[in-house]
């Protein structure tokens, strides 16, 4: 289960030192990705890469929808846009796809930051179920 206190601490560490974002997320036990306002990956940690089977280079710059099933892309894109606008999302369980196209369930928590490049970003914490 994702510890919301820990995710809050990581978000606060990023806000305090956005220039160290990659190092901060690399030190976490959680799989973490950070997407920009348009939904593109800007940071991922090794744990995130391990969960999904992609390298960091395969993810950075691509849209997060590359790891979601076709039938949920529209709703998840909408939810991402709403999150960036309103910063409100509850923890949830989602089905996603790994690099091999296999479905898996994940538990997710998200945090908002506007400290990275003074732009809105979504920090997503993932735990494979």
Describe this structure in words.
There is one protein chain. The protein has 5 helices and 5 strands; from the N terminus they run H-H-E-E-H-H-H-E-E-E. It is of the alpha+beta class and 129 residues long. It has one domain: PAS domain (Beta-Lactamase). The N and C termini lie close together (9 Å).
Overview features:
single chain; 129 residues; alpha+beta; Beta-Lactamase; five-stranded antiparallel beta sheet
SSE order and pairing:
Elements: H1 4-16, H2 21-26, E1 31-36, E2 41-44, H3 46-52, H4 56-59, H5 73-86, E3 92-97, E4 103-113, E5 121-128
Antiparallel strand pairs: 1-2, 1-5, 3-4, 4-5
| CATH fold node name | Beta-Lactamase
Number of domains: 1
Largest sheet, spatial ordering of strands? 2-1-5-4-3
Fraction of residues in β-strands: 25-35%
DSSP strand tally: 5
Give the CATH class: Alpha Beta
Q: Which architecture name does CATH use?
A: 2-Layer Sandwich
Low-pLDDT residue spans: none
- What can be said about the biggest beta sheet? 5 strands, antiparallel
Structural class: alpha+beta
Element string (H = helix, E = strand) = HHEEHHHEEE
């Amino acid at each position: 289960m994702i510890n919301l206190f820990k995710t809050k601490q990581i978000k606060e560490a990023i806000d305090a030192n956005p220039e160290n974002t990659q190092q901060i997320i690399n030190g976490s036990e959680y799989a973490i990705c950070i997407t920009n306002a348009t939904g593109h990956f800007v940071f991922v940690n090794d744990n995130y890469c391990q969960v999904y089977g992609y390298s960091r280079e395969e993810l950075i710059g691509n849209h997060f929808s590359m790891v979601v099933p076709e039938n949920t892309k529209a709703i998840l894109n909408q939810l991402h846009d709403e999150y960036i606008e309103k910063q409100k999302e509850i923890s949830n369980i989602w089905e996603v796809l790994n690099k091999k196209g296999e479905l898996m369930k994940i538990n997710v928590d998200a945090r908002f930051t506007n400290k990275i490049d003074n732009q809105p970003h979504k920090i997503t914490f993932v735990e494979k179920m």
